[in-house]
Amino acid sequence: MTGKLPSSASVALPMDGAKLHAPAADRNCAALCELLLAHAPHKGRALEIASGTGQHIAAFATALPGLSWQPSEPDAARRASIDAYVRDAGVTNVAPAIALDATADGWHGGVAPQDLIFLANLLHLIPTPAAQCLIAQAALALAPRGTLILYGPFRRAGRLTSAGDVIFDAELRAADPAIGYKDTADVITWLDRAGLAPVSIVALPANNLGIIAGKP
User: Judging by beta carbons within 10 Å of its beta carbon (0-12, 13-18, 19+), is residue 143 exposed, middle or buried?
Assistant: First the structure.
């Protein structure tokens, strides 16, 4: 799913057993739960793309118990970590993590129609064609009136709006010129082309955004 990344991106540190720990996941978990409570459906099926270590999915499942959560992750070690977090949290509305590369064409055919698809902190780590493919496939995987929520750092009207974003985007592009922050205007265009209607853009801590779109 991702190519070369700087050491500052996608950090996952070993813990006890199969668990991995991403410091960033601890920092943004509460804000993401609030985002989901405000903008996600509270019943139905929910797919998290690129679930990472699993710290988020256990918290999401607790915050929104009416959703049946499906975590996904292409990396086997991270899938084991996801399942360990879910098991230790004692939540019963989360299925075992599945292997899914959401940048691959055609993946929507392997999942049931989803009422919610959530993605955190991936678009800036993949090339533009992969991001476009991910959004197009997510749109196809959504049930009618389903919701897609994208979270992460973005350019805004072509600009990076904090010193930290300037540094991180430069690190990403130095590691791989094909990746880096995506612009909100481009993302909205991709959502529209995929048949999704942008609902709102929500400002979140650490200069991140939540982009919420719906399927008619």
Answer: middle
The amino acid at 139: A
| pLDDT tens profile 150-187 | 999 999 999 999 999 999 999 999 999 999 999 999 99
Q: How far apart are CA 78 and CA 97, in angstroms?
A: 9
pTM: predicted TM-score of the whole model, two decimal places: 0.95
CB of 166 within 8 A of CB of 160? yes
pLDDT higher than 60, residue 2 = no
Q: Could you state, in order of their start, the residue ranges of all structural domains in the chain?
A: 13-214
Which residues, in sequence order, are CB contacts of 213 under 8 Å at separation 6+? 147, 148, 149, 150, 191, 196, 197, 198, 199
CATH of 13-214, one of 1.10.150.170, 3.30.110.170, 3.30.110.40, 3.40.50.150: 3.40.50.150
Q: What pLDDT score was predicted for residue 16?
A: 82
Give the residue, 8 or 39, on which the prediction is more confident.
39
Please answer whether residues 116 and 47 qualify as being in contact, where contact means their C-beta atoms are separated by less than 8 angstroms: yes
**Which helix (DSSP H) or strand (DSSP E) does residue 182 occupy?**
strand 182-183
Q: What are phi and psi of 83, to 5 degrees?
A: -65, -35
In sequence order, the β-bridge partners of residue 210 are: 151, 202
